[in-house]
Amino acid sequence: MKRFLSTLCALLVAIGFAGCEQNDYIYDFINPSVCFFVTDAETGANLCDPSVAGNVLEWNVTATTDDGKTFGLVEDDPYTRALPSYPLKLRLTQHSTFGNIEGWHVSFGEWDPTKDYRNKKFAIDWGDGTQTEVEFNLYVRKLKKGEVDIDSSIWVDGEDHGSGYYDGWIINIKK
User: Residue 84: CB partners within 8 Å, gap ≥ 6?
Assistant: First the structure.
């Protein structure tokens, strides 16, 4: 019996070490959202703030993806955030400070860069007859041995808006 247990333990250890190679790389990517900060052109008030009269919650704001799915605006719930039925939602949310993202804003996404989005499109209908059209790339580029880069280029209403989760993916709109 001792011989059997010793053999079994040795076999399990051998199998465990066989799966570990130096060439295995583990990456942890951020699933970014496109953030829209909407301000009143006359007063400068943040129209995403629920305490401001005439805010976006009073509009019929929707997002429509290029495959025809439409999402209505929902208030973000931090308690159920990790367990949504699907990560792709149009949310009204607030961050105290997260990179360059601060304050109330509308966000759409949580796009996964491993899904290889190329020329992905969606449109935000602000409920007042205007739309904001967004096109983006979000995919992993393999560089040298073990190195990767994320292409996160984005265009807003046909104009290049740069790249980077904390720069290009932040869109300021005046209404």
Answer: none
